[in-house]
Design goal:
The chain is an all-alpha fold. It has a domain of about 60 residues. Helix content is about 85%, strand content about 0%. Helix 1 runs antiparallel to helix 2. It is flat.
């Protein structure tokens, strides 16, 4: 059994479990409806959840690190997040 001591870690893991449940449900629905049009619509809905979960989980992680990391340590992390969001926006 896992022992979770950090509430932030528990929140991050819970969001990832919810996200994976949504992804699996979407995959099963695609197979169930067996239609390219419906699968495309389901995929569009799932495309919204991915970045939302990433931003939320990253925010929780930064919140947990805020008291532990120095500003010099957070700058590269924030820069990396900004580059990921910029790259996704340009697609």
């Amino acid at each position: 059994m896992f022992f979770v001591f950090e509430k932030i870690v528990l929140g991050m893991a819970a969001l990832r479990f919810i996200s994976s449940f949504l992804e699996f449900t979407g995959a099963f629905l695609m197979l169930r409806f067996n239609s390219v049009e419906t699968a495309f619509k389901i995929n569009a809905l799932l495309a919204v959840t991915g970045p939302t979960v990433m931003i939320t989980v990253t925010s929780l992680g930064l919140l947990g690190l805020a008291g532990k990391a120095s500003l010099q340590g957070l700058v590269p992390i924030l820069t990396g997040i900004a580059l990921i969001l910029y790259g996704v926006h340009k697609l």
